[in-house]
Amino acid sequence: MNFELSNEHKMVQKTIREFAQNEVEPIAAEIDETERFPTENVDQMQRYKMMGVNVPKEYGGAGGDELAYAITVEELSRACATTGIICSAHTSLACWPILKYGTEEQKQKYLKPLASGEKIGAFGLTEPNAGSDAGSQETRAELKDDHYLINGTKIFITNGDEADTYIVFAMTEPDKGVKGISAFIVDRDTPGFSVGKREKKMGIKGSATTELIFENMKVPKENLLGKEGQGFKIAMKTLDGGRIGVAAQALGIAQGALDETVNYTKEREQFNRPIAKFQGLQFEMADMSTQVEAARLLVYRAAMAKAQGKPYTKEAAMAKLYASEVAMHVANKAIQLHGGYGYTKDYPVERMLRDAKITEIYEGTSEVQRMVISGDLLK
Ligand code: CAA
């Protein structure tokens, strides 16, 4: 057992940390305020190969492993959780299923431009009536000669109106339940595809969260991902990896909120001394730091399990459950320790608390993570 990062992982951490501090952090408040998609960050992430950090070099990626991916999302989210999720959703929810289940032609055509960062990816599973109950897909796909005709609506899709390539789930055999769901790779310019409304959200405001609308959308037969009926398993395995990304995002937010609090309490003076001199605040920060470190161990363990080809469903669920709750708790405490200033937009902790909340919801709510963990315990 080794709790030290390898030199390679330390290098990833240092590079992304410097990039996040120098280029992402300075515009994080403005992205939140204007709710604009941070194209310049994505361009830079392409340059640093972050958009394919865990994709083999032969397919345009950086050739890193899942721990490198978790560290990347953590460091980006420490500065800006919007930027963290753009990278995470793209790499884990769009690149990974093509890498894992795609044919060689699909990898050449779709994975390469995604992993190199030339194109952006998204994942279309959630529907108005299929949220936590992801198996209740109402989108239908019907095989007609050389193509599938797909009809339905997806909601809450991260990178929705910025993506070029979508992994879309639809029922091909509705009477078979979850075993009748199939996965498809969908080009944005497919006839019958359109992007619906963009959500106005509490946090991660620069992340484009939209509806996707399919009206007699004609998807070529060769864009079926995996086999017919394999879609639900593809979605679940993909989300197992995505949850490591959301856990890393939550960890980054928590670390960012802790950093801000340590700096602030050393500078802010009350009763003729920096407030960091008061033991009441020291103990709060000691607890926050311990929780952040415990979350980090769970997140890195889940990432290592995936990197080493070991089971990681439960590990990812535990990491996401715990890290997201730590992010909420630590960001909330951070505001408290900043006092009135923490409640204003002059300090980033207010944004961090709003950003933290989504990590308890998307890619499976905390309740769904508890279902996954207890299911494993009781099987
Ligand atoms: N890996 C592989 N297979 C899995 C699996 C996993 N992690 N989880 C379930 N399966 C398989 C089961 O083994 C079962 O197959 P068999 O019958 O062959 O054994 C099949 O899938 C059905 O399993 P369940 O009966 O457990 O399925 P369920 O309908 O009860 O659902 C659930 C289980 C865990 C609640 C699941 O529906 C779930 O994860 N829900 C949450 C969905 C979610 O996370 N949505 C987020 C979407 S993405 C997003 O947030 C937006 C974005 O863009 C970021």
From TrEMBL:
Signal peptide positions on this chain: none
PROSITE patterns registered for this protein in UniProt: ACYL_COA_DH_1, ACYL_COA_DH_2
Pfam families documented for this protein: Acyl-CoA_dh_1, Acyl-CoA_dh_M, Acyl-CoA_dh_N
Domain (Acyl-CoA dehydrogenase/oxidase C-terminal) ranges: 229-374
CDD domains: SCAD_SBCAD
Keyword annotations from UniProtKB, A to Z: FAD, Flavoprotein, Oxidoreductase
Domain Acyl-CoA oxidase/dehydrogenase middle: 122-217
Acyl-CoA dehydrogenase/oxidase N-terminal domain: residues covered: 6-118
Cofactor or coenzyme needed: FAD
GO MF annotation: an example: flavin adenine dinucleotide binding
Origin: domain of life: Bacteria
Stored Gene3D superfamilies: Acyl-CoA dehydrogenase/oxidase, N-terminal domain (1.10.540.10), Butyryl-CoA Dehydrogenase, subunit A, domain 2 (2.40.110.10), Butyryl-CoA Dehydrogenase, subunit A, domain 3 (1.20.140.10)
Similarity comment: family membership: Belongs to the acyl-CoA dehydrogenase family.
Name of protein: Butyryl-CoA dehydrogenase
